[in-house]
Amino acid sequence: MFPDIIKFIPLSHRFLLKTENLSLPLCFDVTGDVRLKLLHHPNRELSVNGELDTVTNGGFRRIVIHFKTDLYVEVDTNVITVREGQTLTRHTGQALITAGSLIVIRRNKEIDVAAGDTRMVIYIHEKDGVEFLWPVLRQQPLDNNVTGIITLKPAVYEEVQQTPSTKLKIKDQEIDVTRVNAVDYSIVSPPTLDCWLTSAESVLQRRLDDFIVTQL
C-alpha cells in the first residue's frame, strides 16, 4: 500500500484591476498571507497597510492606518482600535470616530475613512462563514506621488492575438493571459466577473515586492 500523497496548494488571493471601458478587467494572484501596502500618501503623512487572511480568495484580516506622527488606527471585522499619542480607545458596533482631521464612520458592513483629500471605504464581506475586509479608494488624492495597491489607475490594454492563445499588449509589452473569473469585492454585493489572468508584475507594471511591507 502506498501512503496517500497530499498535494499542498498555496494560499492565494485574487485581485482585479478594472478598465474604464467594457473590456474585461485584468486580474492577478498574490500567494501567501502577506502584508500589502494599500496606500501611501507622503505629502499627507498617510499610510494604509493590510494583512491578508487565510481564506483562499478571501480578503484582509486587518487594516492599519497611520496618520501624521502619533495617530494609529487598526481595523478588523469586529473592533476599531485608535491610538492617539498615549491614549488608546476601542470601538465596537456602529460609531463615529474623530481623531484630529481623520474621520472614521463604522456602519453595519462598511467603514468609511476620510483623511484630508483621501476617501476610502472598507467593506466587510463574508466567505465560508469567515468575515474579512476589502478596502476601496473612493476619492483619489490630488498628488501624483501616491502609491499602493488600491491607488492603481484603470487598466489599459490592447488585445493583439486570440489564437492559439490570447495575448494582450500593455504599454509596449505583449503578455500571455488566461480567461478566468474573480469576485469583485469592491462593491457591497460582490459579483463574479470574467477577467484576464496574468502575473502581478504585468498588471502592476512593477515588482510585487514593491507593494509588500514587513510591518503593518
Sequence of secondary-structure elements: EEEEEEEEEEEEEEEEEH
The best one-word shape is: globular
Please count the helical segments.
1
Distance between the termini: 48 Å
Low-confidence stretches: none
Number of domains: 1
Radius of gyration: 19 Å
Protein name: Inter-alpha-trypsin inhibitor heavy chain C-terminal domain-containing protein
Organism: Perca flavescens (American yellow perch)
Describe the model.
The protein has 216 residues and is mostly beta strands. The chain has one domain. Helix content is 2%, strand content 52%. It has one helix and 17 strands. Strands 1-2-17-16-15-14 form a six-stranded mixed beta sheet. A six-stranded antiparallel beta sheet has the order 3-4-5-6-7-8, with no helix packed on it. β6 and β7 form a beta hairpin. The longest helix is centred in the C-terminal third of the chain and has 5 residues. It is globular and about 60 Å long. The termini are far apart.
